[in-house]
Amino acid sequence: MVKKSGSTKLKRQMAPKFWDIKRKESPFILAPRPGPYAKTKCYSIGVLIRDVLH
């Protein structure tokens, strides 16, 4: 299968405020792929594992 959408990158400054991440640590973070849910209310699983759970 071929990925149809754009990049999986998201600038940390533009990430939702409820994400527990350090905003100025590095420029990019994984963008969520929410499916049928709102993009502003979802959490990327890669961010959860890497940044929140350490």
Walk me through what this model shows.
The chain contains one helix and two strands, in the order ββα. By secondary structure, it is low in regular secondary structure. It has one domain. A two-stranded antiparallel sheet has the order 1-2. The model has no long low-confidence stretch (mean pLDDT 78).
Q: What count of structural domains?
A: 1
Mean pLDDT, to the nearest integer, reads: 78
Helix content: 10-25%
- Tell me the structural class: little secondary structure
Assembly type of the chains comes to single chain
For the report, how would you describe the main beta sheet? 2 strands, antiparallel
Rg (C-alpha, Å) = 11 Å
Number of strands: 2
Termini distance? 31 Å
Order of helices and strands: EEH
Roughly what fraction of the amino acids lie in strands?
5-15%
Q: What is the tally of helical segments?
A: 1
Shape: globular
Main sheet strand line-up: 1-2
Unreliable spans: none
Characteristics of this structure?
54 residues, little secondary structure, 2 strands, globular
